[in-house]
Amino acid sequence: MSKLLLCLHVLAALLAIGPVAVAASMFPKALRRAHSDPGDREALATLRILHRICRVYAAIGIAVPVLGLATASSLGVLGSGWLIASILLTAAAAAILALLILPGQDSALAAAQVPGSSPGTRSPARLAMLTGVFNLLWATVTILMIVRPGSTTGV
Amino acid sequence: MSLRHLRIAAHVELISLTILLANLATAHLKPISSLIGPAHGCAYLFVVAATWNLKRAATTTKAIALIPGIGGLLALRQLNPPRR
After folding, report:
1. Residue B84 domain-assigned (yes or no)
2. Residue B46 to residue A5, Cβ atoms within 8 A
3. Cβ separation of A66 and B45 shorter than 8 Å?
4. Residue B30's closest chain A neighbor by CA?
5. pTM of the full predicted structure?
6. Which domain holds residue B60?
7. What is the ipTM of this complex?
8. I need a labelling partner for B7 at 20 to 30 A (CA). Which of A62, A116, B21, B51 fits?
9. A43 occurs within a structural domain
């Protein structure tokens, strides 16, 4: 049962976090393009689809920590330091995504859709920074999951 | 997030909790708990997130969505009253 849960956990992480990481990283550049040419409908469509990918796959991503906790409890490693650190980092990444990146994209998209709105230079840079932090947190969690410092079954 | 997804997740939330409690009261098979448990957790969190993301959801509806098991269905009822 642990093996099945672990497979589902890794699968969910690959399929849900990957698209969010890619789409959120592409969003700031597309936003700059939409700002530089306000009449560009294609840029707006790109922005909209990138935001939609982030939103939908963030919702699917709920499965990742849930399956992770189920796997950890079935393996009996819930008290390990590396796992607690990963849980905290995951919570931080989820908070950045749900509370800062997605609302930021939402308001940037709404501003870009209004013709003649002043192109803010701060919004793309801020989103790029937040997305970078998000991706860095996930990279750290992935490394913790593989290296498992302090575990007796490490690679 | 459309209402259709919320409706599916709300049903999964209630059905999975029913299965879990029935399993707990009767055979208490471990594979059922460890498979349906995460499914219920996902459905519950999805319902809460989907309701909180709805712009037309009132604060009461968002609070109702937090109720375990039937929160999703109650929130849907609040969003779509029988007569509208």
Report:
1. no
2. no
3. yes
4. A1
5. 0.83
6. 3-79
7. 0.76
8. B21
9. yes
Could you list the residue range(s) of the whole structural domain that residue A13 is in?
2-147
Interface A-B, measured as beta-carbon pairs within 8 A, has a size of 36
Put simply, the answer to whether B42 touches A69 (Cβ < 8 Å) is: no
Is A92 a member of any domain?
A: yes
Reduce the secondary structure of chain A to three states and give it as a string. CHHHHHHHHHHHHHHHHHHHHHHHHHHHHHHHHHHHCCCCHHHHHHHHHHHHHHHHHHHHCCHHHHHHHHHHHHHCCCCCHHHHHHHHHHHHHHHHHHHHHHHHHHHHHHHHHCCCCCCCCHHHHHHHHHHHHHHHHHHHHHHHHHHCCCCCCCC
Nearest-by-CA chain B residue for A65: B42
Question: Cβ separation of B31 and A1 shorter than 8 Å?
Answer: yes
List pLDDT tens digits, range A67-96.
999 999 888 888 888 999 999 999 999 999
Give me the number of domains chain B comprises: 1
Residue B46 confidence (pLDDT) above 80:
yes
